[in-house]
Amino acid sequence: MKWLSDFRILLLGLWLGAACFFSFAVAPSVFSVLPSRELAGSVVNRTLAVVNYGGLIIGLILLASSYVWRRNTNRLRLRLEQCLLLLLTAACALGQFVVGAKLQSLRAQIGRPIDEVATNDPLRAAFNDLHGYSVMILTTAIIAAVIAFFLLARRARDTKDY
Fold first, then answer.
1. Eight-class DSSP state of 113
2. Helix, strand or coil for residue 118?
3. What pLDDT is attached to residue 93?
4. 20 to 30 A Cα–Cα from 108, which one of 4, 20, 84, 126?
5. Are the beta carbons of 126 and 133 closer than 8 angstroms?
6. 3-class DSSP state for residue 82?
7. DSSP single-letter state for residue 117
8. Domain of residue 44, residue span
9. CA 78, 82, 87, 90: dihedral to nearest 10 degrees?
10. How far apart are CA 108 and CA 47, in angstroms?
11. DSSP one-letter code for 74
12. Cα 145 from Cα 88, distance rounded (Å)
């Protein structure tokens, strides 16, 4: 089942590439190019949703497929791979459905561009904190994906019938 192994590596690589491209190219670029930070935030929010939903779906597919054709597999590495995929999936879900939802709610409560709110305003402080959590969660997902990618690649190389 070499094709399954290759497909799993491809899926994880696609998500990892998208997440890194978003983090290092899209987000910084839109804030430097678009005329308002509010507009840039909207673009980043929409793009991050695609990355999070993609990570959630791909993580679930990879996690489910990790239980197929497990012969000749180091159990410790397999469990580590599954834990990392679960971490990736959970981080994307947490980032989208908890932190992202709270950020949207705060934006609605504020009712005007975030840059117009005083830095000592409690809503602005809460927004900044949530933004920091969002960055940490995506970073965690990316790190888990990188490690899982190498585990998947090693398992594909080491296993003849996978």
1. -
2. coil
3. 98
4. 20
5. no
6. helix
7. S
8. 2-158
9. 180
10. 19
11. -
12. 6
Domains of the chain: total = 1
How many angstroms separate the CA atoms of 123 and 137, rounded? 21
Rounded CA-CA distance 160/150 in Å is 17
Q: Return the structure tokens found at 113.
A: 């561009």
| Residue 43, C-beta contacts closer than 8 angstroms, at least 6 positions apart | 26, 30, 34
Amino acid at residue number 93:
A
Q: Which two tokens stand for residue 32?
A: 């430097």
From first to last of its 162 residues, what are the pLDDT tens digits of the chain? 688 888 999 999 999 999 999 999 999 999 999 999 889 999 999 999 999 999 999 999 999 999 886 666 788 888 999 999 999 999 999 999 999 999 999 989 988 888 888 888 899 999 999 999 999 999 999 999 999 999 999 877 776 544
Residue with tokens 């491209």: 21
* Coil/strand/helix, residue 97: helix
Identify the three-state secondary structure at position 100.
helix
Give the position of tokens 């509010």.
Answer: 38
* Residue given tokens 């804030």 in the structure block: 31
